[in-house]
């Protein structure tokens, strides 16, 4: 038995080594090099690491180790590491870097990465980074910053590969070969075809371009699926479309429909990832926080939701206080009442999570909202009946009172039906009035299930038992 | 005021029209065409829609409309729609399609899409789809199915573009132009370089290939970042690496390290999306469900978590029942006790959600676990003190008893500290012993905060007040 588990563990460790570039061992070795102030050793250990892994490393070590590591590694510091860093750590790191190193680091970054880097910095740091850029890059970054936050304009890169619609394959290839490296994006997958007014009309993939005869017209080998975004469109729409239509890259246009940039799938993937993160954290009432935030920041992020919950809990207590006399007569009520409320709260959370997710993925729409509400209510009813029977029996066995069993059973059914209804209807209504359902649904649904749970149970008990 | 809101609504509608290909109006028009049995009109309306949107449409309408629509649209039915459909609906749709239409639909799909399609079907349907394939495709699909579920082998496509490491740019381009279309993948972004033993050694992007002189050796224009996956590696690792290292495509090798397929970013993006979905639903105790499941399926998915919660709630009730005498003496205790438990439950959920996410994104590791636990406990302490003061005052004002205020304040601090500790430590421990923390943490943490909450409040009250 112990052999087996050891083998399974080894398997697991081996698998993890394969998947993670950064192992616990690497981290220890790096921290040791920092401790003995061995810059050569540190550089040697950091050399094989990807910028994303270095960023993870910086996030995971303590603030003290972080600042010592950066000072020791200073000269080698790459701009890409900054892009990959979590916001809260990023500001700290930028503050530690010398101006020269910072300038060096940002100078070779793509414009969209610089935008992503500077948009969350405070004004002094933003100015420092912008000053480090060449004039044309600075203008590009400033222009991108003029688009609203979380818009396609902030997400796009300005380096675009385009070709007039009347070109042939041969013309496009010759153009690509003649264009100097620095005018092309680092990575590109499509040539975007434009009409004379600079409006994008279609995509040609590089694979097709390479495999097609030189005389063929580009227009004849265009992709079927083609989506265009405007610079002011929310990045959430962009991420949705990339995911829904399996896009690899897509052009961005200005208000006149002219091509001004391109968004690639890796940017869309990051947005999707952030959206998910946000949804999951908001559902739990955690706000924007990250693991590397400090105690006071984290406390501040968590406090509002706990305050809302306190109001909710006090409202529920007020319902209970209406039945003080009943409880004083029959203390069993106090013992059993949290069960009904807790079951309702959980069933409500189930329904609301499904609804919030379905709204986020655009699967819950006007076309099926009534069917979904009906289903959730019926699910509440069936589960309500099942747990009513169980709790009825528990009530009888525990307290020897069949009527106490009936009361808790009836309250259970009522609360689970209400939970299904509230859990679906509340997020839908919040979305309609323009409030993020992930953020606010939980408090509303819990209030409903607590109040209904206590009221149904204690009210029925007062009417039937006393 | 009403003008403003109308304008805002119009803005919102316009934006939604831009983002969604499928509008509420489209759905109504399509359902009307189905109702009047107008196949020509239906085909005309469906023609401009992307397969992913048609799949969404089928998911959102009722079962009755769905089967009528499919029968009317039958001949035009595209394999890609099946790929995009939700599992539960997919089986239903396949059962409605005639064998000829089904055969036609799957025949022009990529091998990885067919795998994705058949892996969840029951045996009869799977056989029907496999029979429809050509021999070579069927062998490919069956081979893919021999890899474990949720592995890189299931995710990859077998069509690969490769070149020997000693080739020049010119040789690679000539090879690409000479290869017949059907042997190449639909979309590809890299040429994978291999050594004589078929081991992949690097990637060359098509953009670079196209822009480089014919005489240059491929090995000199390889990408810096290159990741190789083995066929048996979990797809979650693949998705993580694509996201972490901004990969676009990556080779898959067998146990001997030989190149057998390639995974592209759109597949990785789908996996990432599913992983998130699973995490968020598991955190809420909803299991694998989807919006299109029926009442009984949904009930069954939700029931286990509610059953666990019932056990938890009964455990908490048993704590309360130990203090029946105290409650009988002072009913205010029954009124106030849910507040302490509820605040603890919420604070615990906050901590555990952050921990579960950080484990999933591999940001919470051995390197920082103690620092994170320490932070969560301190956050619990600070928030505990803040809400202790508030509740102490509420206790005094509401019930006119300073000592009741002290008791509830002390219980609040204790429970919020415990919530921070349990909310972080429990998911970390579950992950270490190989249990998915997203699935099981909630029940454990809530049990701890309920039991500690009731015990601390009622216990202190019994000791101090009575």
From TrEMBL, chains A, B:
Residue ranges constituting the CBS domain according to the UniProt record: 222-278
Matching CDD domains: CBS_pair_Mg_transporter
Main location per the UniProt record: membrane
PROSITE patterns: CBS
InterPro entries: CBS_dom (IPR000644), CBS_dom_sf (IPR046342), Mg_transptr_MgtE_intracell_dom (IPR006668), MgtE_N_sf (IPR038076), MgtE_transporter (IPR006669), SLC41_membr_dom (IPR006667), SLC41_membr_dom_sf (IPR036739)
Alphabetical list of Pfam families matching this protein: CBS, MgtE, MgtE_N
Lipid bilayer topology: Multi-pass membrane protein
GO molecular-function term, one example from the UniProt record: magnesium ion transmembrane transporter activity
Transmembrane regions listed in the UniProt entry: 303-320, 326-347, 377-400, 406-430, 442-465
Keywords: CBS domain, Cell membrane, Magnesium, Membrane, Metal-binding, Transmembrane, Transmembrane helix, Transport
GO cellular component: plasma membrane
Keyword set includes Oxidoreductase: no
The family this protein is said to belong to: Belongs to the SLC41A transporter family.
Protein role: Acts as a magnesium transporter.
Oligomeric and partner information: Homodimer.
Full protein name: Magnesium transporter MgtE
Phylogenetic classification of the source organism: Bacteria, Pseudomonadati, Pseudomonadota, Alphaproteobacteria, Rhodobacterales
Gene (UniProt): mgtE
